[in-house]
Amino acid sequence: MKRHLASLFLLFLLISFGSAAQAQSLWQDGANLYADPKPSRVGDIVTVIVEESIRANDEANTDLTKEIKHNVDDGTGIFDFIREFGVKADTDMSGDTSTERDYSLKTTISCVVTEVQDNGNLVIEGYRDLKTHDETLKLTLRGVIRPLDVSFNNTISSTKLANPELFVEGKGSLSRVQKPGLITQILQALF
Q1: What residues in the chain have per-residue pLDDT under 70?
Q2: How far apart are CA 180 and CA 153, in angstroms?
Q3: How many angstroms separate the Cα of 5 from the Cα of each of 1, 8, 17, 18, 117?
């Protein structure tokens, strides 16, 4: 009988402790089993595939012709010692300039969602520092994306960003060589 009572008491204890324990599912409702969730909140991360090419051509032609003529007739009265004379000056100036620049940038930047707009669009921002030899490039990317444009692997092309801002800043030996010297900078500022 004692054994039977002890078994009932043990069974009662197990049942009472078992009701307090709850199991949580590893599955979230609405979650996709095969794809990463798309960014939707501040702090979420999205990878931007940057493929930008910019080609700028600028040409300017300047032609300036200026002619000055001034004639003075013979003087009369007390100015009769002045004889007729004339002055003529011609100035011709022309110049041609052309500039051609090609920029190409291919990389990926992981950006963080910094703001969720009222319409559901996401403001993103990301940074990337690249260091090679004695040169450092800092890339900064900001823009607005639509969550619908984010692919199944949580990436988006830079061409799908609205109001994109891409800054590339270089520091190092190459940047120092490309920067004009002090005297050149002064002359460029004056002229």
Answers
A1: 1, 13-14, 16-36, 72, 75-77, 79-82, 85-87, 172-185, 187-191
A2: 45
A3: 6, 5, 18, 20, 65
- Residue 82 in domain: no
Could you tell me if residue 109 is inside a domain?
Answer: yes
What is the rounded distance in angstroms from the CA atom of residue 103 to the CA atom of residue 105? Answer: 7
Grouping H, G, I as helix, E, B as strand and the rest as coil, residue 137 is strand
Q: Kindly state whether residue 169 falls inside one of the protein's structural domains.
A: yes
* Amino acid sitting at position 55: R
What DSSP designation does 70 have?
E
Give per-residue pLDDT as tens, 46-98.
999 998 887 878 787 777 777 777 776 776 667 666 677 666 777 777 777 77
Has this prediction a pTM greater than 0.90?
A: no
Q: Is residue 64 part of a domain?
A: no
Give the domain range for residue 166.
Answer: 32-56+101-191
* Structural domain count of the chain: 1
- What's the gap between Cα 142 and its chain centre? 6
